[in-house]
């Protein structure tokens, strides 16, 4: 499988603090990579570097053979941030239509993503009157409507009920099976099990980059939470 995203000795400082310390990772085309790690580990910073909105100090990220942030990638990456960059004074449908126009999406795309994220019944509602989970789904719809090759999703399932969470992971799988590359951050280890690979980040360093099965095998446990703790403990003993 060829790599869609290659992170090569990436070093980032934010403020005056080093946040990523020369990390390497590869994300195969047509797969889901989960970014896992404690709060503040550097997951969002890595995602920003992949999307090309993060100033890097050294090393870099290549996406589909182009340096991250290149004009050639502009319409090929969908990014959902944690703070739901949607317009509160527009309806759900208008928000998505705005991105549809930006990405020159085909007619019908807005309706189809509305259904995909389960918001058809809220199409006419102002975005600032939605719940947190609904807002997250609008952001996701905005990213999906352009039919991007690469989707970078920062904790897309926070605040969602288990049924919708399950549905979205099924959608993510379909998108990957269609050849798209997904990078999804999460705090929830049971979601890591739905990924093809998991990249565990701690204090700006990659402590594991494996398939969930290999990670479980290597740590002798079936529980990914436990596997993560085992990896961290073994690192601390080194
Ligand atoms: N604008 C900023 N200026 C300075 N430091 C920052 C800034 N944004 C984030 N940081 C720091 O960079 C580090 C990594 O943050 P990042 O948001 O990448 O972590 P994260 O793993 O995504 O965390 P979370 O799971 O809580 O979202 C943290 O120590 C954070 O305090």
Automatic annotation (TrEMBL):
CDD domains linked to this entry: ABC_DR_subfamily_A (cd03230)
Signal sequence range: none
Nucleotide-binding listed as a keyword: yes
Keywords from the named record: ATP-binding, Nucleotide-binding
Ranges in coiled-coil conformation: none
MF annotations from Gene Ontology: ATP binding
InterPro entries: AAA+_ATPase, ABC_transporter-like_ATP-bd, ABC_transporter-like_CS, P-loop_NTPase
Keyword Protein biosynthesis: no
Source domain of life: Bacteria
Occurrences of domain ABC transporter (ranges): 5-228
Name by which UniProt lists this protein: ABC transporter ATP-binding protein
